[in-house]
Design brief:
The chain is mainly α. The protein has 1 helix and no strands. It has one domain (about 1-35). It is flat.
Length: about 35
Amino acid sequence: MALIGAHISVAGGLHRAYQRADAAGCESMQIFTRNQR
């Protein structure tokens, strides 16, 4: 089954989010700068 998307934590800084996404096998990343609500 294909992985559609994942929520990645930015705790510890944005650079940690890149590391976590890479470890999860993500090929792309979208960053939301604020809550849309």
